[in-house]
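Section 5: illustrative case.
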């Protein structure tokens, strides 16, 4: 008698397409919070993480805000120096769970960027070397906008950097112009990239350095 052994079933990890499906689903549920029907492109991720190439701090701490399904998370992990502590704060529980599953080396925190001090304080962190923000501009458009930018500037090391993208079609709208003014109040240097056309929608990136105290 021949016995046929059956290999135990192995759960297959979700493909990148499942991340796209999750992104679309969350956009349909809350378009203002998600702000796009697809995740950011590799071209935008490279521009957002470019300051990592100049990090010379031993064991730096890199914080990502609004990581979604991980477009920038992957780029950070690929470009960050050895010994980097990588954290991500995501408000959406479904996306936070997806991110934690697919990026076990990243400390994923489910919560609001408005609560940065308490979220990071619980992990013994008072300074970070870089902040990469995928937060939609709506996060900065309301009354909490100035406080959020101030909190980010206060959290950064003196030689740290903060990157934030905005879609090109919103650049001249009142909320985007207000955001730009707030960034210039909080940082001595605010550089604006060329338009990243290889993204949908096309976008540009603010790179902010030399944080200053904001009253």
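Designed sequence:
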């Amino acid at each position: 008698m021949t016995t046929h052994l059956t290999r135990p079933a192995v759960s297959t990890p979700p493909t990148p397409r499942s991340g796209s499906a999750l992104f679309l689903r969350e956009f349909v549920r809350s378009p203002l919070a998600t702000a796009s029907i697809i995740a950011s492109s590799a071209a935008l991720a490279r521009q957002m993480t470019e300051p990592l190439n100049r990090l010379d701090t031993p064991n730096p701490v890199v914080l990502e805000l609004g990581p979604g399904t991980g477009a920038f998370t992957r780029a950070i992990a690929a470009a960050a120096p050895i010994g980097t502590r990588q954290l991500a704060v995501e408000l959406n529980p479904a996306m936070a769970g997806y991110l934690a599953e697919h990026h076990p080396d990243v400390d994923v925190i489910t919560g609001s960027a408005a609560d940065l001090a308490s979220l990071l304080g619980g992990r013994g962190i008072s300074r970070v070397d870089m902040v990469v923000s995928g937060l939609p501009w709506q996060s900065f458009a309301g009354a909490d906008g100035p406080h959020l930018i101030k909190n980010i500037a206060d959290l950064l090391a003196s030689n740290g950097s903060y990157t934030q993208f905005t879609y090109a079609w919103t650049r001249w709208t009142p909320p985007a112009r207000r955001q730009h003014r707030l960034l210039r109040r909080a940082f001595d240097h605010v550089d604006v990239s060329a338009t990243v056309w290889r993204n949908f929608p096309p976008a540009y990136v603010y790179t902010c350095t030399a944080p200053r105290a904001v009253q």
